[in-house]
Design a protein that fits this description.
With 358 residues, the protein is mainly alpha-helical. It has 2 domains: 12-224, no CATH class; 260-355, name from scop. Helices cover 67% and strands 6% of the residues. The protein has helices at 2-5, 15-23, 32-66, 76-113, 119-122, 131-138, 141-167, 180-220, 225-236, 239-260, 297-308, 317-326, 338-355; strands spanning 266-269, 274-279, 289-295, 313-315. The protein has a 4-stranded mixed sheet, with helices on both faces. A hairpin with a 4-residue loop joins strand 1 and strand 2. Helix 3 packs antiparallel against helix 4, helix 3 (32-66) packs antiparallel against helix 8 and helix 7 packs antiparallel against helix 8 (180-220).
Length: 358
C-alpha cells in the first residue's frame, strides 16, 4: 500500500472518475465566460433598447419632479403607497435588462458544464474551515494564476479606456460649446466603445481561460495505474471472483441439462466424442428440440444417464457432428435436418414398439 501511495498519476481519468467528480460539482469552468457574455449581452440590450429605457426613465422621473408639489402625503400609509408605485414603475422599466443579464449568466454556465445540480457541492464540509488548508490555497499556484488574470484584466480595461479616450482628445475641448444632450450622447458613445472593446478582449481571455481550466481539471483527476485497476475491480468485479461465478453458472446450467436427459426420446452419438439428446412432442413442439449436448467427458456422462434411464442411443457420426456444430441447447433442429432426424426417430419408435410387443 505504501508503494501505491507514491505512484505518479500519469493515467488519464476514466469516464467514471469524471462522472463522480461531476456529481460532487467538480467541473471545468471559467469565471471569465459569464463575465464576458453578460457584458456583451448588456451592450446589445443597450444598443437596441437603451434609448427606450432611458427615455422611459427620464419621462417617469420628470413627471415625479414636476408633480412633486401636488403630492399630498398625510400619513405613513400614503407614503408607502406612493413609494411602492414609484418602485413598480422603475422595476417595469429596468426588469427587461435584469432578465437579459440573468439569462446570459445561466446560458454561460450551461454552455460550459451543461445542466448540473449537485447537492453535494452545497453540503457543509469541515475541510472548508481548515485554516492551514486555507493558507495553503492562498499561496497555491491556482491563487497565483487568478492574481495574474486579475492584473491582466485591469491592464486590458485600463489600456482600452486610455486608448479610446486618447482618440477623442480633440473632441473633448469642444464639449464646452455643446448642449447637455450632445455631451451625454458623446459620453454614452465613448463608454459604449470602451465596454465593447473590453467585452471582445474578455471573450478572447475567457476562451483561453476555459482551455486552461479544462487542462487543470483533467490534470487534477489523473489517476495512478493502481487506481485504474481498483476501479475496474469495483465496476467489473474481481477477475477471480468473476471466473468463480462463471464456473458456478456453467455447473448449474450443466446440471439442468443433465436433468433433461432422462426425458429425451433419443441420444445421437459420434459414437464416443459427441452426444446430443433430442426430444419431440408432436402436440407441443413444431420440431424435435435439443435438450442436451456435450463433448468428451460430458458426452460420456450424457450416454451414461441415457443408458440408466433406458433412453435409446443411436450412433450417427455425420448427424451428431452437424447438430453439435450448428445448434445450441433449447434450439429446434434446423429444417435441413428434418429428414435425417425423422429417420432416427422412426427407427427409435419402431424399436420401442418391438420392445413393447407392438
Amino acid at each position: 500500500m505504501a508503494e501505491e501511495s507514491f505512484q505518479e498519476k500519469t493515467e488519464q481519468p476514466t469516464p467514471k472518475k469524471i462522472a463522480d467528480a461531476r456529481k460532487k460539482g467538480t467541473v471545468a469552468k471559467s469565471r471569465e465566460i459569464p463575465s464576458a457574455l453578460i457584458l456583451l449581452t448588456s451592450l446589445g440590450f443597450f444598443f437596441f433598447s437603451g434609448s427606450w429605457m432611458f427615455s422611459s426613465l427620464s419621462e417617469f422621473m420628470g413627471g415625479i419632479f414636476r408633480d412633486i408639489g401636488s403630492f399630498k402625503i398625510h400619513d405613513i400609509t400614503t407614503a408607502s403607497t406612493l413609494s411602492i408605485t414609484i418602485l413598480k414603475n422603475i422595476l417595469s422599466i429596468i426588469l427587461p435588462f435584469m432578465l437579459v443579464v440573468v439569462v446570459a449568466g445561466i446560458v454561460a454556465n450551461i454552455v460550459q458544464i451543461g445542466f448540473l445540480f449537485s447537492p453535494e457541492a452545497f453540503s457543509p464540509k469541515l475541510s472548508k474551515f481548515n485554516i492551514i488548508k486555507g493558507i495553503k490555497k492562498l499561496f497555491s499556484l491556482k491563487s497565483l494564476v487568478e492574481l495574474i488574470k486579475s492584473l491582466i484584466k485591469i491592464t486590458i480595461v485600463g489600456g482600452i479606456a486610455y486608448l479610446t479616450i486618447e482618440a477623442q482628445l480633440k473632441t473633448i475641448p469642444t464639449l464646452m460649446q455643446m448642449d447637455i444632450k450632445d455631451i451625454i450622447a458623446f459620453i454614452g458613445m465613448t463608454s459604449f466603445k470602451i465596454c465593447l472593446y473590453v467585452s471582445m478582449a474578455l471573450i478572447i481571455m475567457a476562451v483561453l481561460d476555459y482551455s486552461y481550466q479544462k487542462y487543470e481539471h483533467t490534470k487534477s483527476l489523473k489517476m495512478t495505474k493502481q487506481e485504474i485497476k481498483d476501479e475496474n475491480k469495483q465496476t467489473e468485479g474481481d477477475p477471480q471472483v468473476k471466473a468463480r461465478i462463471r464456473s458456478i453458472q456453467i455447473e448449474m446450467s450443466r446440471r439442468r441439462m443433465m436433468e433433461s436427459v432422462p426425458d429425451a426420446d433419443v441420444v445421437i452419438t459420434n459414437p464416443t466424442h459427441l452426444a446430443i439428446a433430442l426430444k419431440f412432442d408432436s402436440e407441443k413442439m413444431v420440431a424435435p428440440k435439443i435438450v442436451a449436448k456435450g463433448a468428451g467427458k460430458i458426452a460420456e456422462r450424457i450416454r451414461d444417464i441415457a443408458g440408466d434411464n433406458h433412453v435409446p442411443i443411436v450412433e450417427n457420426k455425420l448427424l451428431a457432428q452437424t447438430l453439435f456444430k450448428i445448434s445450441e441447447i433449447g434450439d429446434y433442429i434446423p429444417a435441413e435436418l428434418y429428414q435425417a432426424v425423422a429417420e432416427v426417430l422412426a427407427y427409435v419408435y419402431r424399436l420401442k414398439g418391438i420392445r413393447n410387443g407392438v
